[in-house]
Amino acid sequence: MKLLLAAAYLAALTAPVCAAGKTETFIINKGIYACKTCTPAFTVKADGGAYPVKGANFDAVAVRLTGSGATEIRMKGGKVVTTINTSISSDRRTATTDFTDTSGPKPAKGFIVSRRVEGSPKGDNPVSGSWLQMDGSGDKFPR
Question: How many other C-beta atoms are found inside a 10 Å radius of the C-beta of residue 119?
Fold first, then answer.
């Protein structure tokens, strides 16, 4: 029962990220990061700076691009509440996302593995495209 409650709690915390059982779409092009399937959907510069997001359980997000993916840092009141690191495999078909969420009474950590279901436009960051969650561990981040 505790595990079920913990999973429900984490699902509620992360609902603005993406919904379980749904393909998630991200576009990173020309220094702009767009989470098309997040609720609410948002678009911010991917330069590491914090930008406001309205209608979510966080009020700002910062996105840093990495060589093989991206890091998304969510903040509330200037404090980091969630860090999401996504790395893309060399064949660009698999995404591994690890996360830490400190917005609840206990930190939640875990990872998910997703497969690409739609490609990204040529020249986009490797995270760009649509992804379907395949496997996870830890606190089951619903992405």
Answer: 12
